[in-house]
Amino acid sequence: MSAISTENLSKIYQKNPEKPVLDRINISIEEQEFLTLLGPSGCGKSTLLHILAGLMEPTSGAAYCQGERIQGPAQDRVLMLQEAALFPWLTVKSNVTFGLKERGIARTEREKLAQAELKKVRLADSANSYPHQLSGGMQQRVALARALVLRPDIILMDEPFASLDEQTRFQLQQELVELWQDLKMTVVFVTHSIREALLISERILVMAGNPGRIKSEYRINAPYPRKPGQADIVRREEQILADLSPSRQPSSRENSESYREVAAG
To answer: Which three-class secondary structure state does DSSP give residue 94?
Structure first.
């Protein structure tokens, strides 16, 4: 059974009914898979992620988690946004334990769990610091620990590293892959960076806009850890860049099949 799937999922906003945001999306994401939705701004990838999180309803079609129709947020799925969105008046440890407190977990247990997650993201020594005392990269680590401490089966990530400098972003990409491999969770990651998608993903779904749809699929078999300059990553980057070109539009056959699969090179 798929961890996440959609069936002819479409989304139209009432303010602009003639321009669907998403058009008949059909995807299947396996358990413990690292899948990335890649595409330009405005192609609907964040809208799709919010539907998978249960924060938004599709206009038609459906989304499923473990075979059950998604009808709202659930504890098995956690959404991580581009901004860390930490509570500035709470310490790092209190930010991480916030969700556990809402779930009624005893204080001693939630502090134990939070400290373990902070250790995983290399922030154990910053547990008593406040968000304003941390760098942007450190704040994103706190946000990641806050998500992971809830033990979700699926983590949905909406461009969480987009605002970071290149060096910090690369470091967090590597750490995320390590955590995914260790925790064996399902990751659905949204980005508009081809290189980021190639460095972290097992599979990439390329999206096109107007309306948003799945344009193509790439399976990335390069072993981890990956580096930007390695030959297979560079080759794939050029291939996907050409695929994303506005002049390269999917054929009617590709549209009818939802997406095409590109064999690993």
So the answer is: helix
pLDDT (tens digit per residue) in 178-234? 999 999 999 999 999 999 999 999 999 999 988 899 999 999 999 999 998 888 899
- For residue 211, whether the previous peptide bond is cis, meaning omega lies within 30 degrees of 0, is yes
Dihedral pair phi/psi, residue 7, rounded to 5°:
-135, 105
Residue type, 18: E
Predicted TM-score of the model (pTM): 0.88
Residue 8, helix vs strand vs coil: strand
Report d(CA 9, CA 63) in Å as an integer. Answer: 7
Integer CA distances (angstroms), 157 to 18, 101, 136, in order: 29, 23, 16
Q: Kindly state the tokens that stand for 245.
A: 């070109």
Give alpha helix (H) positions in 121-230: 136-148, 166-183, 194-200
Tokens of 109: 């247990």
The rounded distance, in Å, linking the Cα atoms of 52 and 49 is: 5
Structure-block tokens of residue 46:
């964040």
For the record, the structure tokens of 222 come out as 């390069």
**Cβ–Cβ under 8 Å, residues 144 and 121:** yes
Q: CA nearest 156: which of 65, 43, 258?
A: 65
- For 39, other C-beta atoms within 10 Å of its C-beta total 26
- Angle CA(226)–CA(37)–CA(9) in degrees, nearest 5? 155
Q: How many residues does the chain have?
A: 265
Task: Dump pLDDT digits (tens) for 155-181.
Answer: 999 999 988 899 999 999 999 999 999
Q: Is 122 left (phi over 0), alpha (psi -120 to 50) or beta?
A: left
